[in-house]
Structures are given as C-alpha cells and as structure tokens.
From TrEMBL:
Protein keywords: DNA-binding, Transcription, Transcription regulation
Ranges of the DNA-binding region feature: 30-49
GO MF terms, alphabetically ordered: DNA-binding transcription factor activity; transcription cis-regulatory region binding
Domain HTH tetR-type as annotated: residue spans: 7-67
Protein's organism: Kocuria soli
Record protein name field: TetR family transcriptional regulator
A biological process from GO: response to antibiotic
Length: 189
C-alpha cells in the first residue's frame, strides 16, 4: 500500500517548529532539522518560509491568531475584551515561552495575522469611545505590560529562586492590568 503524504504548507511547517521549540528549545529549530522532521529536503521549506526569522515570527503569529478571545468578543465591554485578550496572551506566552523568547520577547506585530488581531482590538476600543491615538496607546501599553509580565513569570518559574508565599503573580497581573485600564478610562469621560 502506498502511503500518501499530506502536502507541505506554511502552517504545517510552523506547527512542527512549535512542537520542536516547545520540547527541545530554540536551538532545535534549524532548517535542516525541521526538514528532517517533516520528511522533506531543507530547500523545500523555502517555498513556505523565507528564513529562520520568518519561522520565529510565524510561530508567534500562528499562536496569536488562535487566541480564542479574538473571535468571541462581539457583545462584551472594552474592559472585558482587553482583560480577556491580555490574560489569553499572557497564558499563551507562558505556555510557549521558547517561541516568544526566540522571537525576541515579543517583537512588534508584523504579520498579517497578528496585525488583524491588533486591529480588531483597536476597533473595539474605538467603538467604546477612545480616540484612535489613545486606542493605539492603550493597545501598546497593555500588550507591552502583558509581554513583560509573562517573560518575568517564565524567568521566575524556570529559576531556582523562591518567592515569598504572599507573592501571587495572577493577582499582581490582574491589578496591574486594572490600573492600566482605569488610567486610560479617563479619556472616555
């Protein structure tokens, strides 16, 4: 019986790269290794990705595009949406820390998928009454706060350091996010 191989796609390349980096770390993601994992020649990957940086950016963009809160937020308030998106982003970054660390700790959004996700959030903020400039600022501050917090969480989790029992990262993140939203809400009055 002849085994038919699924056609190679950009998504298949990125999904395999995510599995590799999650299990073996950033050093495992090379064109040669990725091609071997997919059962193809390394040169055939270049039909789907430009280079290694494209793979690193693509992995993050693919994960971000699958965040559930970006597609299920039609009737929620701007606060609920921003809260849920930031929590989802933080959870995503802590679940796949090697992806985001290898990508540069959350480089600026540059692909079509993550630009679309950002645009949806900014549209929600504008519909709530934020001027575009303020909506952009709120998006940038919220996403930067979330990236920084997630990277810090991963660093503590992966280190030998102990933290005081009173330290509750989830509580601190939620309070920080609430403070950001409260601060920006003044532009709605």
């Amino acid at each position: 019986m002849v085994r038919v191989r699924e056609p190679l796609t950009r998504t298949a390349v990125l999904e395999r790269a995510i599995r590799l980096i999650d299990h073996e770390g950033p050093g495992a993601v090379t064109m040669r290794r990725l091609a071997a994992e997919l059962g193809v020649e390394a040169m055939s990957l270049y039909h789907h990705v430009k280079n290694k940086q494209d793979i690193l950016d693509g992995m993050a963009a693919l994960l971000i595009s699958r965040m559930p809160t970006l597609t299920s937020a039609d009737d929620a308030s701007w606060r609920e949406i921003l809260h849920d998106v930031c929590w989802s982003y933080r959870n995503l970054m802590t679940a796949h820390p090697n992806v985001f660390a290898a990508q540069g700790g959350g480089r600026p959004l540059i692909s079509g998928e993550d630009q679309l996700a950002a645009q949806r959030i900014i549209e929600v903020l504008e519909r709530a009454g934020f001027p575009l400039e303020i909506a952009l600022d709120l998006f940038q501050v919220g996403s930067s706060f979330t990236r920084g917090f997630a990277l810090s969480d991963v660093a503590y989790r992966d280190s030998e350091r102990t933290v005081p029992d009173e330290w509750d990262s989830d509580r601190a993140f939620d309070r920080g996010l609430t403070a950001i939203m409260d601060g920006f809400a003044r532009w709605l009055d």
